[in-house]
Amino acid sequence: IGSIIQFISENGYYPKFLDAGCGNGHTLACIKEAFPEMEVYGFEYNQKLLKLAQSRNLSGTEIFFHDIRETFPQDDFDMILTERVIVNLHSRNQQLRAFKNIHSALKEQGEYILIESFQQSLDELNAMIQENAQELVVPSKHNFYLKLGTWHNMKKLGFELMPGPFPENQLSTYFVLTRVFHPMIRGKDEK
């Protein structure tokens, strides 16, 4: 929401926004509630999640089936968001293809909001867990965590890093609470 407010204050108009891999449409609903007049789009690859997103019947929002690994309209969006989408692609090549598609779909001064899982964050979380002699977090088979070198490949595609409201590599509060503190409080044998 902060990025959208900043975009509006800098440009004087609402961005054309795409949630690439919108899941059940929760983020789209939040954005439409905050900015009802904004042009908002979302696509989803998973048919069950797509139906859930579409069932929200968000006014002025187009939600459609699409695979992020396939191209979509070029130079069309002011802002594109992915949240835990790229991590679900099964190879670095598929991730790179998705980044290429995102970059080509952005207008010249468009912004990409990347909320994804990085291996370094998982390593830091597991270091905290290990200090407390707890069971390490192992990524799901379908997750392919991004490496720090990912940013270098994105720069080659033409992306520029913009300062955001959070540190570049912030651990998820949810994971710290549920994987570190909760097991400390409940003990190893309690569920």
Question: What's this entry about, in short?
Answer:
The protein is α/β, with parallel strands linked by helices and 191 residues long. It has helices at residues 2-11, 26-34, 47-55, 92-105, 119-131, 150-157, 173-186, and strands at 17-20, 40-44, 61-65, 77-83, 106-115.
Question: Overview of this structure, please?
Answer:
With 191 residues, this protein is of the alpha/beta class. The protein has helices at residues 2-11, 26-34, 47-55, 92-105, 119-131, 150-157, 173-186; strands at 17-20, 40-44, 61-65, 77-83, 106-115. The chain has a 5-stranded parallel sheet with strand order 3-2-1-4-5. The radius of gyration is 18 Å and the shape is globular.
> What is the multimeric organization of the chains shown?
single chain
The residue ranges in which pLDDT falls below 50 over 5 or more consecutive positions are none
Roughly what percent helix?
Answer: 40-55%
Name the shape in a single word. Answer: globular
In whole angstroms, how far apart are the ends? Answer: 36 Å
Count of β-strands: 5
**Structural class based on helices, strands and sheet pairing:** alpha/beta
Helical segment tally? 7
Order of helices and strands: HEHEHEEHEHHH
Strand order of the largest sheet: 3-2-1-4-5
Indicate the proportion of strand residues: 15-25%
Radius of gyration: 18 Å
- Mind summarizing the main beta sheet? 5 strands, parallel
Labels describing this entry:
alpha/beta; single chain; 191 residues; 5 strands; 7 helices; 5-stranded parallel β-sheet
